[in-house]
Amino acid sequence: MQPLLLVCEDLHWIDTETQAVLDSLVESLPTAQLLLLVNITAEYQHGWGSQDLLHATALDPLPPMWRRRVLHALLGDAASLEPLKTLLD
């Protein structure tokens, strides 16, 4: 059996069915050749805290100026996109 790297992004938007699959994977980590790499926001609640195999690294959110720069680079400067930029910021 080959080791597996599974990357899951933005778990703060996860649905309940996918969360159940990930919960099952986390439970099997001690016996699986699996590296599960996820990114989450601080508000996300996962319930995996008691697992000995977990390691968390906190990343601070981007400052407002940098968020606006990223949104401008990705979306451009069309006025019609301002409501979307406000929602994402």
Strand fraction band? 5-15%
Low-confidence stretches: none
Give me the Rg, rounded. 17 Å
Largest sheet: 2 strands, parallel
Strand order of the largest sheet: 1-2
What is the helix fraction of residues, given as a range? Answer: 25-40%
**SS-based structural class?**
alpha+beta
Order of helices and strands: EHEHH
Distance between the termini: 43 Å
The best one-word shape is elongated
Number of helices: 3
- Mean pLDDT score, rounded? 85
The tally of strands reads 2
Could you give the topology of this structure?
Layout (H helix, E strand, L loop, with lengths): L3 E5 L7 H13 L5 E5 L25 H12 L6 H7 L1
Parallel strand pairs: 1-2
Structure description:
The chain has 89 residues and is an alpha+beta fold. Helices cover 36% and strands 11% of the residues. The protein contains 3 helices and 2 strands. It has helices at 16-28, 64-75, 82-88, and strands at residues 4-8, 34-38. A two-stranded parallel sheet has the order 1-2. It is elongated. The model has no long low-confidence stretch (mean pLDDT 85).
Label this structure with key terms.
89 residues, alpha+beta, two-stranded parallel ribbon, 3 helices
